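job 3f2a | input accepted
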Amino acid sequence: MSGTIACVFAGGGTGGHLYPGLAVAERLRATAPGITVRTLFLCSDRPIDAAILRAEGATFAPLSAKPAGLKPRALLRFLRAWPSAVRTAADLIARERDAAGGRVIVVAMGGFVAAPAVRAARTLRVPIVLVNLDAAPGKANRLIARSADACLTAAIGDAPHWWTRVPPIVRATALPPGPPQECRRRLGLDPERRTLVISGGSQGAGTINDAILALLVRRPALLQGWQVFHQCGDKGDQALRDAYARAGMAAVVTPFHRAMGEVWGAADLAISRAGAGSVAEAWASATPCLFLPYPYHRDQHQKRNAEPLARVGGAVIVDDQVDPAANAAALEPELDRLSRDPEALAAMRASLRSLGPADGADRVAEALLTRLGATGA
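job 3f2a | predicted structure (377 res):
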């Protein structure tokens, strides 16, 4: 089959909503030879969205959407932004529909940006597919599901039984490009040294950064057996560099690293947030993890995201207590145990491999092509 199809991905505000959409887009192009695949990302107006999508060479347009909130000021911002966001989304979806000769679909990746795009799609009678990423679907996803033509979920958790489950969704650049020695070399690390990766996700995590700073003061010898790659976000990178230097440690500290496959491939162990994207990438790369889920979500969905990996013995969930000293104290025994026992790390990695392939991007791409009548290409 030939011709043109258009997929409008709606989601943003963090890399966790964007990267899975990018992964699906790349698989669409790979699995639909002979078809021209147009993709457009409707994202938030936060700088992180533009930075990620521009680096990936994606076509995107920001919407003025704002998160809904119970406080009067947040609710007012949401209500003021909503009409403009819906109008902009409708204009852009209609343009894609015309360019694709009517074969267009809106893929809601979750979050506050997806809601006005879905509203616009309903008005235009454009099909909608929801792709849920978190183990506890958020309010926006639960509302979107009511009008979606199909609901897919890449998380094991509280999704309704009639949603279709798919494996984790991971983009190609988040998969290790080679053996650990090659990945470490690309990151500027010693290829032969044991490596600890610390990551708070695309925006960093202040409580994780602070916990490491406290640990370097509390018990620096615990970390000195490792070389470290630390993705810390756009604040506090110099303080971390100074702290590692004072401890006499080899460490690469960076606010953001695009090719996360190199990072996961380099790791013997990772300390990480438990956003859906980070959990999926740990699964895909079989990287043993100490997960510190984001502590401020009321539904604790990051903790639920990590539970499947913890249940098979491939990860340990450490509650983020916010206080740096408390978090350092909680991490200390786990780091001590795993530093002394390489066989335990090997067993964790084997457990993660037993989970199977993280090929959710292929499954979602197939579902979209079927909806668009573009199978058999």
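job 3f2a | The chain has a mean pLDDT of 92.
job 3f2a | closed
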